[in-house]
Specification:
The protein has a single domain, classed as Alpha-Beta Complex (Sufe protein. Chain: A), CATH 3.90.1010.10. A hairpin with a 2-residue loop joins strand 2 (about 40-50) and strand 3. It has a 3-stranded antiparallel sheet, with helices on one face. It has helices spanning about 5-20, 65-80, 85-100, 105-110, 125-145, and strands at about 30-35, 40-50, 55-65. The chain is α+β, with helices and mostly antiparallel strands. The longest helix is centred in the C-terminal third of the chain and has 23 residues, at about 125-145. Helix 2 (about 65-80) packs parallel to helix 5.
């Protein structure tokens, strides 16, 4: 039986929500930020370790629905090892995809497995779940640029 692309994406989301290797504390993290979705109670803490302007390591802890947990894990896989500028571009592309501002498959390739959330905009109640980690990461990157409190 041939799996459809949406089935592959669903499998990917379920795998990341249940068995994420990214669900961990980061020793000596440079930045730590809480993200909270008051609509459903999802809550994550993102931790980030930088090496210059490169994201050396990331992890998260917290609780929430399968969408928020998988989105956080996939985001970490997608931006870990990248520069801050590359991460910001990926985050911007992901958010634009969710808002249906970018639909070009070629442009969406840069977000790698995060494309699994492409159709989440069809479920408005789940959009905030998918975006929680991405907005939290935006806050961390803004603080790193501003030299703000870690």
């Amino acid at each position: 039986m041939v799996e459809s692309l949406s089935d592959v994406y669903n499998d990917l989301i379920m795998e990341h929500s249940m068995y994420s290797e990214n669900k961990k504390d980061i020793a000596e993290a440079d930045y730590s930020e809480m993200g909270h979705n008051p609509n459903c109670g999802d809550e994550i803490k993102l931790e980030l370790k930088l090496n210059g302007n490169k994201i050396e390591d990331m992890g998260f802890t917290g609780h929430g629905c399968a969408i928020s947990q998988a989105s956080t894990s996939i985001m970490i896989d997608t931006i870990k090892g990248r520069t801050i500028e590359e991460a910001k571009e990926i985050i911007s592309t992901f958010i634009s995809m969710i808002k249906r501002e970018i639909t070009d498959e070629q442009e969406l390739q840069k977000i790698e497995d995060a494309i699994a959330f492409k159709n989440i905009s069809n479920m408005p109640a789940r959009v905030k779940c998918a975006l929680l980690a991405w907005h939290t990461m935006e806050n961390i990157l803004q603080k790193s640029e501003d030299g703000s409190e870690k």
